[in-house]
Design brief:
binds adenosine-5'-diphosphate; 36% helix; five-stranded antiparallel beta sheet; 9 helices; four-stranded parallel beta sheet; binds magnesium ion; alpha+beta
Length: 292
């Protein structure tokens, strides 16, 4: 029996119910793997229940969704699944890359894809000086694992940049500093699945806000843009992901890749585009399972 799985530390989220329903409608079995109650074994590579017994029997393909709740534990489970030969849309190395603004910048640069100028450093004074020279003002400080715009901070001048870097340094958060893509407040998001763009939305920030995230009050509408779709497909490939939400920022004349999110939500995207993301994901997982 072909068994599909979704691995998540948040099985209660609505999208996981959507995925289970989409699988059931196709006569497929999809299990929700609750990362909170599972145990990763490095050798032999396996995923165990609290009783110490393998839970992997029959699982042929998995979609992992890794948020900021205990991400390393969820990724340990995914490492074990990969080593045990389970097929996956997004592998653990690619998820680690996409979750991290620095590693994403490096992957995009290696592929020659347009991305805002990005620098990393540690000591606040040295980083503020270097970033001021390279990025100018305003600039954007990002926690390397920001989500939904939380941890993405606009700094208008050198004192603000120093204050932000100093606070984050004290709490131990690793950051990047990025050139502000002016005028700001406008982005497009493309969902890419198995090397194809499945739709594109445009996001306009709320008044007084530069972040366009729907979670920060940004307005979302569907758009058709083949050039941005092609750029997003290349960005997703450069990070090595089979499924991602790619954010593109407009600099007044062209689009730059802002981030490649390995665990995108799709409620706003689905509402704006009418695309049934859960069904497409289940089909892609089933194709992966059939190919192994
Ligand atoms: N360098 C930048 N210049 C202008 N706006 C930016 C820049 N970086 C991020 N933003 C805005 O902030 C939002 C959130 O940043 P993003 O890198 O996508 O992180 P997150 O994972 O938190 O969504 C983006 O959608 C965009 O609207
Ligand atoms: Mg984003």
């Amino acid at each position: 029996v072909v068994l599909l799985a979704v691995l998540t530390a948040r099985p209660d989220l609505a999208i996981h119910g959507e995925l289970a329903a989409a699988a059931e409608a196709r006569g497929l079995r999809l299990d929700l793997f609750d990362a909170g109650s599972l145990i990763a074994s490095a050798w032999p590579p396996d995923v165990l229940g609290p009783d110490g017994r393998s839970r992997l029997g029959g699982v042929s393909a998995v979609l992992a969704r890794v948020g900021n709740w205990r991400p390393d534990s969820t990724l340990a489970l995914l490492d074990a699944m990969a080593a045990a030969g389970v097929a996956m849309l997004n592998g653990p190395a690619a998820i680690r890359r996409g979750r991290d603004h620095w590693r994403t910048a490096a992957a995009l640069a290696a592929a020659g894809l347009p991305h805002p100028v990005t620098v990393a450093g540690s000591e606040p004074e040295a980083l503020a000086a270097g970033a001021a020279a390279v990025c100018g003002f305003p600039c954007v400080v990002k926690q390397r694992r920001s989500r939904q715009g939380v941890g993405v901070i606009l700094c208008p001048d050198r004192p603000a940049l120093e204050a932000v870097l100093d606070s984050l340094w004290r709490v131990g958060d690793e950051v990047v500093v990025q050139r502000f893509v002016a005028p700001g407040g406008l982005s497009r998001r493309v969902l890419v699945l198995a090397g194809e763009a499945i739709g594109c939305t445009e996001h306009v920030a709320a008044a007084g806000e530069f972040r366009t995230n729907a979670a920060r009050g940004g307005a979302v509408r569907a758009v058709a843009d083949d050039d941005v779709a092609r750029l997003a497909v290349s960005a997703c490939a450069s990070v090595g992901l089979g499924f991602a939400g790619v954010d593109l920022l407009f600099d007044g004349s062209s689009w730059l890749v802002g981030e490649v999110n390995p665990s995108p939500g799709w409620a706003h995207f689905a509402r704006a585009t009418g695309v049934n993301v859960a069904c497409l994901l289940v089909d892609a997982l089933a194709r992966l399972a059939a190919a192994t």
